[in-house]
Amino acid sequence: MAIQRTFSIIKPDATERNLTGAVNAVIEKAGLRIIGQRRIKMTREQAERFYDVHKERPFFGELVDFMTSGPVVVQVLEGENAVKAYRDVMGATNPTEAADGTIRKLFAKSIGENSVHGSDSEENAAIEIAQFFSLADIVG
Ligand code: RTP
Ligand code: MG
């Protein structure tokens, strides 16, 4: 498998509890390299665009409220098979179903406030990275 990039967000429930470093430690221990990182406060427009695929879901309003409720850390991760590797280390969306040692098992509060986002395909990773990073801010 080739070296790949994926897009990550450390969500407001994690930044609020000062867990950015703890999440990054799990990411780096999994062999993923953080090659871009920025702390931002998402606007409603940014969050609505980012989660456009979920706009018909019942939790959409709650999700946008949550993602704009505090700072997030947006990241570009690089490594072997990075999209799947990061999904594996994140764990299941619902922390009660997440495997031991995963970020969501360790830190997530609930299915909504679940500490991290990771792209679900290489194609979406490229789209999501382009939404938040310019090329000059990614140093591989
Ligand atoms: P993500 O996109 O954040 O990496 O998470 P995911 O693929 O595991 O989950 P997805 O189905 O794409 O859902 C996106 C985010 O929406 C929130 N959610 N809330 N209340 C609910 O039932 C519910 N379901 C999903 C979570 O924050 C989830 O990560
Ligand atoms: Mg998703």
UniProtKB/TrEMBL annotation:
Homotetramer. It comes from the Bacteria. Gene3D superfamilies: Nucleoside diphosphate kinase-like domain. This is Nucleoside diphosphate kinase. Its main location: cytoplasm. Major role in the synthesis of nucleoside triphosphates other than ATP. The ATP gamma phosphate is transferred to the NDP beta phosphate via a ping-pong mechanism, using a phosphorylated active-site intermediate. GO terms for molecular function: kinase activity. PROSITE patterns: NDPK, NDPK_LIKE. Keywords: ATP-binding, Cytoplasm, Kinase, Magnesium, Metal-binding, Nucleotide metabolism, Nucleotide-binding, Phosphoprotein, Transferase. ATP binds at residues 11, 59, 87, 93, 104, 114. NCBIfam families: PRK00668.1. Its EC number is 2.7.4.6. The lineage of its organism: Bacteria, Pseudomonadati, Pseudomonadota, Alphaproteobacteria, Hyphomonadales. The keyword Kinase applies. It holds the Pfam family NDK. The active site is at residue 117. Residues 3-140 form the Nucleoside diphosphate kinase-like domain. Transmembrane segments: none annotated. Belongs to the NDK family. Coiled coil: none annotated. It is found in: Cytoplasm. It catalyses: a 2'-deoxyribonucleoside 5'-diphosphate + ATP = a 2'-deoxyribonucleoside 5'-triphosphate + ADP; a ribonucleoside 5'-diphosphate + ATP = a ribonucleoside 5'-triphosphate + ADP. InterPro entries: NDK-like_dom (IPR034907), NDK-like_dom_sf (IPR036850), Nucleoside_diP_kinase (IPR001564), Nucleoside_diP_kinase_AS (IPR023005). Its cofactor is Mg(2+).
